Request: fold
Amino acid sequence: MKIFTIKQLLILLLLPLFLSVEIYAQQKSIWDRLPDEVRDKNSFKRLEWFYRQRENPDGTFPIDTYYSERSKEIEKQKQLDLEANDFQLQWNKIGPDGILSTASSPHLQWGELSGRVRGIAVHPTDPMTVYISVAAGGIWKTTNAGGSWSAIGDTLASLTFGAIAIDPNNPNVVYAGAGEAMFLFNTTIYDGRGLFKSTDAGATWTHISNGFGTVTHFSDIEVSRHNSNIVFATLASGYWHAAFPTNEGVWKSTDAGVTWTRTLNAGDAFDIIVDPVVPTKVYAAMGGGLSSAGFQVSTDTGNTWTQSNTGLPSTGDIDRIQITQSLSLLVPASPVAFYAIIYTNAFPVSDTRVYKSTDSGSNWSQISVGANLGGNYGSGWVDQGFYDLCIAANPSDANDFFTGNVELHRATDGASLNVQRVSPGTSAWNSPSHVDIHKIVYAPSNTNYIYLGCDGGVYKSTDGGTTWSSANKGIGTIQFYRMASDPNDKDNMVGGAQDNGNFRTTDGGATAWNFVTTGDGMECFYDHSNSNNVYFATQNGRLYKSTDGGASTSWIFSTGGSWITPFFQHPTNDQVLYATNTSVYRSTDAGSNFNVIASNAATSDNINTMAQSKVDPNNMIFAASGSYTSNGDIKVSTDAGFTWTNVTGNVPGADRVITRVVTHPTDANTMFVVRSGFSAGNKIYRTTDLGSTWTNVSGNLPDVPHNDLFIDPDSTNNYYAANDFGVYRSTNAGTTWQREGKDFPFVPVMDFDYVEIGLNRYLRAATHGRSAFETDLDMIIPVELVSFAASIVDGLVELTWTTATETNNMGFDIERSINGAKYEKVGFVNGKGTTAEVQRYSFMDKAIDGNLQYRLKQIDFDGSFEYSTIVEVDYTQILSYELEQNYPNPFNPITKINFTIPEDSNVKLIVYNTIGQVVTTLIDEVISAGNHEVLWNGIEASSGIYFYAVDVSSLESDKSFKSTRKMILLK
Reply:
């Protein structure tokens, strides 16, 4: 158990020891009792928004529930993947793999941005190979100095990592410590779950939990260059609002990480260094303001420790400390120096200072006295050492070192630190990298290479720190809050994310998205009648408008509302906009003016979610949990927001923060509320009478916080839930649910966006840590469709399809589109109910001149339905034989093969593997003249190269035709 000093108790304003339960319940939350200096910072507000809505009403986190549920869902997903389940959605990444700073941004030199990087490890002999650990984004690797990155370890028990290290003697061995460590306001969930080790350069990982306990927050890991069996790790908890873990300190392993022993049990440990020359000397940095804080030295390989603080501040003022040593094995005669950067949480004024030792830490002296080592955005210096703090010395030059806090500082004389900015800049916007710096690492084999981790990702210098550039290309770790699509062009998208503002893409995410606004990007949407008009919001209801598709913006209004303030457009009147705080605001002139139409409509809190029916825009609903009130108001309006009826008491279930309210796409009286927090079976509720009565549709959803809900307008029994494990789908209106996780990491999904353009329907999922994904909803079919083909036979279109299994299948509507027009029903074929046997179907349709597209609308007995893939034929005169390249190619697992024959013929179409073995025969029959399309479902085949060959013999002449093409199945 951590022991607190008087100062720490005052900082946390902890309750008296003997307060009764009743009195405790009446006290302010610890979130509210922190000093304003911390509460006013966006770095605090981001954490508060994410964690506070997830805690129980008493301020606790059910850690065991979270990890138990996560483990169960991971195993379920593995089983679904093994079964090659065709019910799963196919997800594709759409970025951002980087947000590009543009000429309109105040930080053009920042280049491409990604998510928060907490740990960096550089290969001992190759400065181009780097591993990074990302907050909520997992582990990533590059082999070309950041030219491209690959995610590794997406199925690990944690996606938040605070430290990563490479064995200097065997670079294939990599250690990753789960959980971030900060001085103030760490949390007890969504963080660490132990240590992970790879022995194959990150391809696979082993989970190590021996000794560390349930929850971990790693600050550093170091492998001894003298003996790879000796590994050290430091853990810190900072100040907690709900619990205090007991695993802080310095840990040691003597068997390459298999087992661990704590050798320094004295509070928060933030840094560890093994002396590169003397194998038995180890140095540790201890914080927390405890009596053990400061610089600790071991001369027996970390078994025992001695404090060495001469010249450092008093231990009560050492709240967080990071250390670095300048000693190069490349330059053996180089001078030795230690530097320590110390953050003191002395409210109301915090302070960061740097100290230097030239005698291995026996004596210290403050350097660069009086320097402000935080950052300045133009309105004064701020210090965030409780959140971002680091230091790194040039191994080859003891006088050259960098510090990181809000901004980057450098000294080249061993004494005087200067803020690093791009000329002629005078504020943090002119920093060479994104602000909020967490880690700086020199490449061991070439000190010209330096890597920097910050809230904007990873940056590099290849000239010893003189210049810096973004190294974020390909890192998809953006922490979305919201996203939206252009209703007229699916490739146009906008988004809002933590610490990276608003941004946009015009190429479907194929390249980096472009910066739009600074701050924390929130709600955003396109004008449904004019896509040049795009609306954006940043934190607490600062609203912006663009009239050029998002290339530039102008401020239009501020509400001072919730961290994420509702802001949206009327579904049919493009001039009407809504925004909120405790009141409801409306603009009737596209944002030029806003007026209150319902003053203090919410009495419990700021409104944090609001929705308006597209069927009847008079019907609206909101929830008010903007300050994380677990029993906030839920109110309904039937006059477009002017008056509101309180329906809070009608909604069943335990009190938890309402994260989203949703209206039904086809029923004006049906609405939904979505709950965060932990309470089994208490996630989603539906009303069909404007809030008078409610039905629980949580079904078998996991007991984790839920964030959004989407109802498919073309198949209204299909519900999609966004929660902290990903996306779940119900095909029976919420009775049962299944994770739709094929190719989707276990990461919180914050927002859904749906776009329907022509014949295409896309659902997009914005994650908080792994950017965004999309799926084509029309690619889903709830029976296992083996093949679906269309061909011309005697002036008719013949459709044939085969299913391998069917469940609850009433039948198939046959729908046709002519030359891209709207689909129309042209027939119906009865299904076979539930069967595990192969079923074959056919349907004849009159051929009409032009391009004919067909799809199957498979309908269950309960009324739910799904669409198949589309097949097409062109009804024109056929003059020659042709075998076309399959599409898509590569594919997974379904592809289309088209061929053309000018005369009725015997046709064989066979798929072969690379050694000539027959994989499957798709056609072996008489086929009439025309254009033909066949689907091959390679679900049973393994990844690899295949060949498909057609052999045609005419029945009307002596003509024959043979052709072979290659295709690639890539799973």
Summary: The CA atoms of residues 635 and 768 lie 28 Å apart.
